[in-house]
Structures are given as C-alpha cells and as structure tokens.
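To assess whether the prediction recovers the assembly geometry, we first specified each molecular entity separately, as shown.
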Amino acid sequence: MIAELIAAFLKIALVLGTISLVVAYLTYLERKIIGHIQMRMGPMRVGWHGLLQPIADGLKLFLKEDIIPSKADKIVFVIAPIMVLVPAFVVYSVLPFDENFYITQVNVGLFLVLAVSSLGVFGIVMAGWASNSKYSLLGAFRSAAQMLSYEIFLGFSLIGPLMLAGSLNFQNIVRAQADVWFIFYQPLAFIVFFIAALAETNRIPFDLPEAETELVAGFHTEYSGMKFAFFFLAEYANIMAVSTVGIAVFFGGWGGIDAIPLPGIVWYLMKMAVMIFVFIWIRATLPRYRYDQLMRVGWKFMFPLAILNIFVTGLVKFLFL
Amino acid sequence: MVSLTHYLALGAIVFVIGAAGVLMRRNAIIILMSIELMLNSVNITLVGFSRQWGDMTGQVFAIFIITVAAAEAAVGLAILVSLNRDRTALNVDEVNLLKW
Amino acid sequence: MELLFFYMFSAGIIGASLLMVTRANVIHAALLLVLTFFFMSGIFILAGAEFLAVVQVLLYAGGIMVLYLFSIMLMNVEVSVRLRQYHRQSFFAVAASLILIFEVWTVLGRGGSYPAFKGFSWQLGATPGNVEALGSVLYTKYLFPFEVASILLLAAMIGAIVLAKRTIDR
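The predicted structure of the complete assembly is given in tokenized form:
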C-alpha cells in the first residue's frame, strides 16, 4: 500500500516536473523556430544561442509585481489562472507515454481527457469576466463560443478511431494499432481532430480569444507576473496534451517500426517533437481567421465531415468486420 | 461501508437545498440553477439504487436526466435572455403579467 | 476509506450548494454550482459509475454551466446584486423545506435493512467494464427512450434559437 503510494507520487512528480521544464523550453523552441522561419536568429543573448532564455523569462515573471485591478472581482480573478492550469495538468494523469509508463489507466480514459480539458474554458471565462475590462470580456466571449463549438468536433472526430479500437482506455487504443496506425484508416478524422485541436488550444489561426491586434491580449490583458505565466504554462501544457492524444489515437502511441528497436518512450518523444514542430510551423505560416469564418468553418464544414466519418466507419465496420 | 441510506440521505438533503433555492430566491437565473441542483440530487439517488442492486438501469436514467437538464437549461436561458431585453433585473415576482 | 471519501464529497456538495443558493452575485453562484457538480462526480465514482461521473463533468460542468456563464454575461446582471434577494414567501419556503427534510429523514430512519452491496458484474469479473455494461443496456433495452431523448434535444435546440433570436425590424 505505502510502496504503491510512493511509486505513484514519484511518477506524478516525474511527469509534472518534466512537463514544467519542457513547457518552459517550448517557449524557447517556438521563438527560435519562428525566428528562423522569418530569417531571424531568435533569442541569442542569454547563454549559448539563448539557451538560458526561458529561465531568465521565468525569473522575470516571478519577480514582477502582481497587479490586481481595483475594479476586479478579486477572488475570481485569483482563482481563474489556477482554473486554467489545473485541468491542463490533470489530463496527464491518464495519458499513455509508454507500454508500462503511465500514471494511471482508467476505463474511461479518452473521455476523461475530453471532459477535463473542456474545463479550461472556465478559467478563461472567469479571467475575462473578473478583470472588469472590455477587452478581457470580449476575449472571454469569443473564447467561450469557440471552445464550446470546437470541443464538439474534437469529440466527434475521436469517435471513429474509438469504434475501431472498441475501448476508451488509452492502453487498449494504442494496442489496437499494433499493426496499422489509425491515421491510415481515419485520415478524415485526423484532419478534423487537428483543426479542432488548434482551436481548442487557442493557437493561430484560431487565436481569436487573445488576438493581440484587436483585443490587446484578450482574456489575460489585465494579468501580470506569475498569474500571466500560469496562462502561458497552461497553453503549452495543453498543446503537449493534445499532441499526446493525437499520437495515441492516430499514430500508434509508443509503437514504432519493428526493424528499428528503440524503447517506446523514444518513439513517443520523436512523434511528439514532430507534432509540436507542426504546431509552431502553422503559427509562423497562417493568418488569423475572422470570427464568422471561424464559426462557418466549424459548423458548416467540419461538423458534417465528422458526422460523415462516423457514419462511414460504422457502415464499414457493420458490413465487413 | 457506504450503504444505500447514505446515498438517499445525501440526495434528499441536496434536493431540499435546491427546492429551498427555487422557492426563496427572486433572481430567475439562480432559480434555474437550483432546478439543476434538484435534478442532480435525483441522479445521486438513482446511482445509489444502481449500486445497491448491481443494475445499470439507474445509471441509464441518470443519463436521461442529464439530457433533460441540458434541454431545460437551453430553453430556460433562452427565455431569460429574451426577458432581459425589456427589463434589467430578472426578478421572478416582477414577471407576473403572463404577457410582455 | 470509502466512507471517509463519501463524507468528504458530501460535505463538499452540501457546503457548496448551500453557498450557491445564498449568493447575491450570479456568477459566484454559477461557479459554486460547478464545484457542486465536481463533488457529485466524485460521489458517482465512489458508486462505481465512472462513465456517468465523466459525463457529469463533460456535460454539466463543461457544457451546461458554460452556457449559463455565457448567458449571464450576455445579460446585465450587475444591477440585481444590489436588490432584495429573497422572495416575500421565503419564510414559508424555509418552513416547507424543513418539513420535507424531516419527512425524508423519518422515512429513511424507518427503512428496513438491505442486502449489502456485492459489486457490479464487471467488478466481480463477469463483464468487461462500466462503459461496456452501460452501452449494452442503453442501446438495447433503452433504445427507444434514447431516441426520444434525442428528439427532445432537437426540440429544445430549435426552441432556444426561436426564443433568443432578436425579432427582425420590418
């Protein structure tokens, strides 16, 4: 009993520590990659090629004055960043990293991830409302509408692969892809999933909630210091979580090519690196959607596509399997 | 050991809190939220029964209740939004004309 | 252990819901209701209804309550914070509630003893799991109510759109 508890705590500490560190370096990676795509160098001053930049940034955010606007709803204002950060980290409790390395596996794993990640929108809405500022409130409005809509497509796009795997447990979903990855069976589902994932993590081209050219910084306009850092951490933690879900459901999780014997975790990390690079690449390439375009793409294009995918999958499974 | 009585007692207490909220408050939104609370307390008792007899029917009905609650919330909030157009405070004892 | 968690979650539910019905600020009330739903999903997990617990978080907390918050922000609710919060009938309401809780308490106290809970079929190792068990019942025995529920949702959706839509100026 006690040994189990200690093992569980060690695992949680390891995963959370790794994520926090990787998230910090993701900001560095993002600035570097975007810099090179735009023919710049990116951060160069702190350390060799700017390698210590995230630590300097973290220190700066930590030491900055923590401002609470005088007209803000103080309790909600303080809780909001925590409400964004906690779901982003809780999701990792069921995600699969390797055959035998996960914090826990539950019967409703994938569904739990969807449920918990849908709570992130609360923090954003709370932040927008509690700041008592028009930019924040507008950002929160956009965010609530966008995340509610795209959550639906995210869920629907995962139903097709689920029907093939016949389980909500991540370990079983990955094991079902031992021969063929689901991306080959479900390319349409993956496209819908990826677009919805971009929208759920508030990334360009769907970063309307924090569109800096229109809304200053959207829902976190009034935040500073550590609270601002929380929003930032949550955004990158969400990107990694959503990439992990994508890898587990469409790209065979820890599985790799049999000819090259590598540990599962290495395969997983390689796929993760590719996914994150694509996320950053898209940010450097695409412009932002307009609000009505965002809604049109979602409801008139992706929603029917997701339904069609479920229908065809069900039909094929009914007829041939 | 948690028994059926625990679940029923909890469900009853939450139901009464919700009912008191519905009867006491003037703010229409809080009344709607209290109704959600009452619906949920019924879910607790259903899940308790389901656990007692090892039968899934209670959980199935809890899912139906959640569906009904979603429908109720959507229509209720739509009514409140349209009511809010011609009066600012949504107090139920002021909405007594049966017309607008 | 199970009892300890049950009492923790129950205390959370009762505390948060009592606070919820007494708040003047609607947004605070909505957030407390979300908290209540969290504790309830904890109770569901204790009762072996994992799927329902997740549905509770996904639909109630993640769906319905966001809808509430969204509508509250659309309406101008700051005015009502300064107004009288309780109805004139609240004395009778409290009295009725107390009578109701007393009645239920008496009935529960008189109830006979039940056979102790042995475990769901999947906990005893007979069937795969909670999700599978729920799905097989929901899509066979309760297929018709399930379809009716979907019609209800469609009707509610149309109704909400019609009600909340601004009338177009002619």
